[in-house]
Amino acid sequence: MNALQQSSRNARCFPTPGIAIEPSSLWDGASADARGAVFAAGQAAGRFRAVMAGQLLYEHGSPMRHLYVLMSGAMQVSLTERCANEGRRERIVDLAVAGDVLGFADFAAGTHRADAMAIGDCRVYMIKPRAWNRIAARSFDVPSLAELAAYELRRALRHAMRLRLNAMSRLADFLLELNQKSGVDTPGTGPVLLPSGKTLANYLDLRHETLSRTFHKMESLACFRRAEPRVLYAVDWPLLRKIRATTWRRQV
Asked: Is the entire prediction scored with pTM above 0.70?
């Protein structure tokens, strides 16, 4: 299966919401006016971009000129690594959803160190760092570049620590992070939509078979219900927090 076919499959399970930005921990406390100012700056500069499923937003080695505000859709950020058998392996280092800002991790280097590919159709605003800084200087609600750096560092550290956990704790922490971004931690909310098993296994550094067994085990513990392989219902968020805090033997 080629990348475009895989992305089309992911689009059905990790769908794009409307144009309104989804909640994200980066934007906690930001007013609607502040968000509107950032997006208006992108529109005024004519930097709105639609990225179709399977297309690259940016690629490894390209100049870092903009911050990318993901308005809708989802993207995977991946590195290509050499393997011991002299082959190459794609490693997904980030799964970005609506409300995330991409590209800032490469700000200091000046060039992108990874590829960002759309999972399903995406809408993106492209804003130059200086323009972002000017907007942040006018409004305390808009995160500054320093706050963006701190946010990216927290996300990177969280994922690094996640990969030191066992399979159940990794999956629990991933779902809890999705919850923080989408604000679904309340009874009676809609289903939780996931990327493909192949994409998620890569991101969590698990074998596909291990991830499948983990889903079945957690479903048997009543962590959630699955009417479809990539759609979760009745998620027990307090139970996921307990599982995340459990320090069991690491599984791969």
From this structure: yes
